[in-house]
Amino acid sequence: MARLRTVTRPRTPALPEPGEKVAKVDAMFDTIAPRYDRLNRILTLGLDGSWRRTTVGALGLGRGARVLDIACGTGDFCRDIAAAGGWVVGLDRSSGMLAAAATDAPLVRGDGLFLPVRDASLDGVTCGFALRNVIALDPLFAECARVLKPGGRAALLEVAEPERAIVRAGHRVYFRHVVPFIGGLLSDRAAYRYLPDSTAYLPPPAELVARLAAAGLVDVTRRLLGLGAAQLLCGTAR
Ligand SMILES: C[S@@+](CC[C@H](N)C(=O)[O-])C[C@H]1O[C@@H](n2cnc3c(N)ncnc32)[C@H](O)[C@@H]1O
User: Is 71 in the pocket of ligand 1 (CB under 6 A)?
Assistant: First the structure.
């Protein structure tokens, strides 16, 4: 049997041990759910909204297109997809995040690695800021490819490290020190310490692109948003 390639590579004390990751991540999002949206707006200086709209735009949705937002959290993507004319369902593991969601879209409690969706049935899938949080990327990418109709689009948004040295240095101070400090004041310090530390789970850019292609998506692209603080990965189903 092929070994499951996990993304669990703890490098700091803030990251859970591999066997604990699912339960710890679920509990963390349940805890921070009531203040999640407010912290997002503050910590991204309001930029997360435009990153999500860019991500939804990359799907190129027609009116009534059927879309799944994997790891929907509190429903931001669901609202943007509906505003773009799509028919969207949100899916997330955290009951706390789903309970805090503000969206008219149907919401399902479930796991992005085992989607309760028929093969080739969707026009688009989105996934925002969750690649660091799953226990294995390849099953998630395979599920995205499986549920898309031929020509359907996947658009995955995640944090990134800016490429330009000067921007990277400023971003590092902000992400590693300011974010946990503000997160600790307004929400849960451990969760906002995990946020920068969990970037250690992300493979390098070229590997991310290669693994999406290996999952069966074509025309895979990666672009940076917000001076490189976020990355948008897109691909098309065959
Ligand atoms: C940082 S939040 C992002 C929420 C939302 N996508 C957004 O853009 O604000 C990460 C979300 O991923 C969810 N999540 C983590 N692992 C998951 C999995 N295996 N399946 C489904 N949801 C998952 C968490 O419960 C949490 O709501």
Answer: yes
